[in-house]
Sequence to fold (140 residues):
Amino acid sequence: MVDFILQFAAAALASGGFAVVFRIPPKLLLVAALTGAAGWLVYLSLLPTSGTIMATFAAAAAVSLLAEVFSRKLKTPATTIAVPGIIPLVPGLRVYRSMEYFLNGDNLNGIDEVAITLLIAGAIAFGLAVVSAVFRLKKK
Fold:
């Protein structure tokens, strides 16, 4: 339980920090931070049973759903909340590892890491797009 609280706090701090860097309006900082933390908890909850790609897709969909709901309540674009919200899901360590493998001449592991990184990035994009599309269709 303590691990989930620490992970929640770290994800909220990361999302909130990037929200500041992206110059999100101050009234939205907490919402963006909590959205990212909630998405990270979805990821952590599903990771043992679903695997990395599906957990990332579900977490990105959760971030998008929260961003769409909050955007309507706060009268702001959903991307203002969603972009900092997906920051904890970005596979930065995998990108670093793939570069390290390539620099060390281990091309096979480098290609493997790049492939997984691209699948994770696709899962993030698809998770955001599916929920956003549903909200756009609902609007019409």
